[in-house]
Amino acid sequence: MDFSDTIGVSAAGMRAQTARLRVAAENLANAETTGSSPGADPYRRKTVTFREALDRASGVSSVAVRSVGEDQSDFQMRYDPAHPAANEQGYVKMPNVSSIVEIMDSHDAQHSYEANLNTMQVTRSMLARAINLMKD
């Protein structure tokens, strides 16, 4: 693995974590988004899955987003008979989003992003040192 491969792997990791942060932000933004008619489904939490991405030319593997899917867990029910989406019993389906889970996922993605950024910075520094050594 050479310097450009290392930087490429770090960049791929940063792209993957960016997608993860984007999805967590969307989930948090829609944590209270309900349906607009009685019994309608609310916002459904999105999830990100990753896959291994192999660069066949160099033989280096990295990470990529496989898909952005939907969490199929049950919706919570909240009693609010005045809500436009309330069913006959007065219950409204609420999104299956947990703010705590999304915040923790955001923190984890941020730390992973920073680790990839640090790897990229160290690699660039090593490359600069190698170039300086060749100049002397």
Structure description:
By secondary structure, the chain is an alpha+beta fold. The protein has one domain (3-130). The protein has 2 helices and 4 strands. Strands 1-2 form a two-stranded antiparallel ribbon. Strands 3-4 form a two-stranded antiparallel sheet. The chain is elongated, with a radius of gyration of 22 Å. The two termini are 25 Å apart. The mean pLDDT is 93.
Compose a concise summary of this entry:
The chain is α+β, with helices and mostly antiparallel strands and 136 residues long.
Provide the descriptors you would attach to this structure in a database record:
136 residues, alpha+beta, two-stranded antiparallel ribbon, 47% helix, elongated
Indicate the overall shape.
Answer: elongated
Strand content: 15-25%
Structural class: alpha+beta
User: How many structural domains in the coordinates?
Assistant: 1
Question: What spatial order of strands do you see in the largest sheet?
Answer: 1-2
**What is the gyration radius calculated from CA atoms?**
22 Å
- Give helix and strand order, one letter per element, not per position: HEEEEH
Oligomer class:
single chain
Total count of helical runs of at least 4 residues: 2
